[in-house]
Specification:
0% of the residues lie in helices and 17% in strands. The chain has a two-stranded antiparallel sheet. The mean pLDDT is 76. The chain is elongated. The protein has a domain at 35-61. By secondary structure, it is mainly beta. The chain starts with 14 loop residues before the first strand and ends in a 30-residue tail after the last strand.
Length: 82
């Protein structure tokens, strides 16, 4: 379908309105159910060879943004200043 200007009209996906336990309503786009069982499985990082107990640790970071301390290596904590 076109708008007459050569630009196609975007599809209008099916939406569902759901309420949380506080009564807040949220609109969600319907999608197929997927198996999330893989998220609970351990993952071994190829770069370091270390293993995390599940995939939730991996979500907010990459291996390139952190490093593993060597056994017995002192950990130094610094705060970024602007």
């Amino acid at each position: 379908m076109s708008t007459g200007q050569g630009v196609p009209t975007p599809p209008n996906p099916q939406h569902t309105t759901v309420s949380d336990n506080r009564g807040n309503e949220t609109t969600r786009i319907d999608g197929k159910l997927v198996d999330t069982a893989a998220l609970q499985n351990p993952i071994t990082f190829p770069f370091s060879g270390r293993t995390a107990m599940n995939r939730f640790l991996k979500a907010p970071m990459t291996e390139r943004l952190c490093h593993w301390n060597k056994e017995g290596e002192e950990t130094v904590h610094t705060l970024a200043t602007s």
